[in-house]
């Protein structure tokens, strides 16, 4: 268990950074996460193989597919539907607040993920 201080956005960014090993500046989560690659890395660390295909292409369609893969994997591990974001919320920068809610929900869920021993976000 690790205590992450700061705003919800800062907590989400720090947790993603810890799990993925990729620098994620809290001030610009949209740019850092838009490709979906880092989110897929996080998901595959939490539950290996949960996002089977991760594209490194910088074109919109593969990036949206990456984001959808992350969303589907979150649902599969048990993140509540009400905590989920729609891929357009992230890709089109429509609702970053909901993206942060999803990341925090996944970070809390990790405490109960049997095969995962990495950092998680403590319930507050």
Automatic annotation (TrEMBL):
InterPro entries reported in the protein's UniProt record: Calponin-like (IPR050606), Calponin/LIMCH1 (IPR001997), CH_dom (IPR001715), CH_dom_sf (IPR036872), SM22_calponin (IPR003096)
Family annotation (PANTHER family): CALPONIN, TRANSGELIN
Transmembrane intervals: none
Name by which UniProt lists this protein: Calponin-homology (CH) domain-containing protein
PROSITE patterns, per the entry: CH
MF (Gene Ontology): actin filament binding
Origin: domain of life: Eukaryota
GO cellular component: actin cytoskeleton
The organism's taxonomic lineage, starting at the top: Eukaryota, Cryptophyceae, Cryptomonadales, Hemiselmidaceae, Hemiselmis
GO terms for biological process, alphabetical: actin filament organization; actomyosin structure organization
Domain Calponin-homology (CH): 6-111
